[in-house]
Design brief:
Helices cover 35% and strands 24% of the residues. The protein is an alpha/beta fold and 441 residues long. The protein is elongated and about 85 Å long. Bound molecules: NADP nicotinamide-adenine-dinucleotide phosphate (NAP). NADP nicotinamide-adenine-dinucleotide phosphate (NAP) is lined by residues 11-16, 44-47, 50, 65, 80-82, 87, 105-107, 132, 136, 303-304, 308.
């Protein structure tokens, strides 16, 4: 009989408890596929007595995850605590330092310290596997690390945060405001009490930082990503997008541009009938454009205990089968420094929503400022929100700002930003115009 693979599981929350359920339920299947039994040699969490819906009375308990990580009986540390620093980092470093394999679902840790940890894993010739860290159950890490490793990737983009996608989808389908939908999502447990990390785009940026490195063979550079959240998206934008054939999605996008890698997280307009626009609710979707393979779209559950545990378990199986790969596709010594492309050079079309004072010459002045920066306009419409009542209630009071929506032809980020700044300075608009990039698909 083959020696069992012994796991130390640190973190018994949503993902940890589901993983234990999976390991128990599929014990025989895993043994058959791994060619050896997979055994839980120890667990660690904060509260020993907590009911986690799984039977753990026979499993050795460790108060300290670092002690679990270095326990001689453990071959693989499965880190499911979370957080970029603190005990999760300490446990992973301790395990790698002691020559043990690591499986983690911790995107924050990898986005901030991925390269240093990968170097440690390479020095010890052990695995650092993190399929669950990006898009939960969707096998996007293996797709980039293995299936597409012979391709040159041109672009990777996607919907990487279920909370944001749920909010935007509900705003679209139920014509409700951001604040209203967010409150409901919090009440139902879909959004954190402090939602900044999700709705501000930072969670998406963590995942995009990892994907960018895998796709382009560069060092992970979370700090170099331009990040905007969805907090300022209004029902007026959702309605205007719908009328013009678009949906608004929070996208993480990374591509090779002339001056380097362009990596950005922001709300984007995507054509209503594109495959990515159809990814709705809490579902995630990741698209990859590669030279020989062409375009792929992977869609599925980006979070949740069972789906995430499925990804963690596949990483454990790889180790049980003896597979140890460079964590970031190639040895870290071959990774190129991250060269950030200038966002000002980004080329694309834009949606702009103005609140224009009802004064003679206001529209002419706006058009002139656009013309000065060589931004050409594809369409311009004055729109009233659908929610406005018909009749007198729908009329604008004399002199009140009128909502005007403009779509530009392809231009540069620098040109549109300069034009918008000049329009604001002219005093023809009552608030900062809303600018949303239209993603070329
Ligand atoms: N949830 C998802 O859908 C999902 C999807 C993809 C990736 N992930 C990632 O998976 C990881 C775990 O997420 P989760 O949702 O399962 O988190 P969670 O439900 O909050 O669970 C965290 C676990 O870590 C334990 N813990 C916290 N501090 C500890 C400490 N100092 N020492 C020992 N144990 C400690 C907690 O112990 P107690 O239970 O005793 O408090 C808990 O069991 C995170 O990196 C997350 O980003 C989660």
């Amino acid at each position: 009989m083959q020696q069992p693979l012994t796991l130390g599981i640190a973190g018994l929350g949503t993902v940890g408890a589901s993983l234990i359920q999976l390991l128990l339920q599929h014990k025989d299947r895993l043994e058959e596929r791994a060619g050896r039994p997979v055994r839980i040699g120890g667990v660690s969490a904060r509260h020993k007595g907590k009911d986690r819906g799984v039977e753990l009375s026979d499993v050795p308990w460790f108060d300290d995850p670092v002690r679990l990580a270095t326990d001689p009986g453990i071959e693989v540390l499965v880190e499911l605590i979370g957080g970029s620093d603190g005990v999760a980092k300490a446990a992973v470093e301790a395990a790698l330092g002691a020559g043990k394999h690591v499986v983690t679902a911790n995107k924050a840790l990898l986005a901030e310290h991925g390269i240093a940890l990968a170097q440690l894993a390479e020095e010890r010739n052990v695995a650092l596997n993190f399929e669950a860290a990006v898009a939960g159950g969707i096998p996007v890490i293996k797709t980039l690390r293995e299936s597409l490793s012979a391709n040159e990737v041109h672009r990777v983009y996607g919907i990487l945060n279920g909370t944001c996608n749920y909010i935007l989808t509900t705003m679209t389908e139920e014509q409700r405001s951001f604040d209203d939908v967010l409150k409901e999502a919090q009440a139902r447990g879909y959004a954190e009490a402090d939602p900044t990390f999700d709705v501000g785009g930072f969670d998406t940026a963590h995942k995009l930082a990892i994907l960018t490195s895998l796709a382009f063979g560069t060092k992970v550079a979370f700090d170099e990503i331009d990040v905007e959240g969805i907090q300022l998206i209004t029902q007026a934008d959702i309605e205007a997008a719908d009328d013009m054939g678009y949906r608004i999605k929070l996208l993480g996008v990374a591509l090779r541009a002339e001056s380097g890698i362009e990596a950005r997280v922001h709300p984007a307009m995507v054509p209503k009938h594109s495959a990515i626009a159809e990814v709705s609710g809490a579902t995630n979707g990741v698209a990859i454009d590669a030279d020989f393979c062409g375009s792929l779209l992977l869609v599925g559950p980006g979070a949740g205990g069972p789906a995430t545990a499925s990804a963690v378990a596949s990483d454990i199986l790889d180790i049980a089968r003896g597979s140890v790969m460079a964590p970031f596709v190639t040895h870290t010594r071959n990774l190129k420094p991250y060269k950030k492309a200038k966002l000002g050079a980004h080329q694309g079309a834009y949606y702009v929503r103005f609140s224009v004072y009802d004064r003679p010459g206001a529209m002419g002045a706006i058009a002139k400022r656009m013309g000065d920066r060589e931004v050409s306009i594809e369409s311009i419409v004055q729109r009233r929100p659908r929610s406005a009542l018909p009749g007198i209630g729908a009329r604008l009071a004399p002199g009140a700002p009128a909502p005007v929506v403009m779509i530009t032809h392809e231009t540069t980020e620098e040109s549109i930003r300069q034009a918008i700044d000049a329009i604001e300075r002219d005093g023809k608009v009552s608030e900062r115009p809303q600018v949303i990039r239209i993603e070329k698909l």
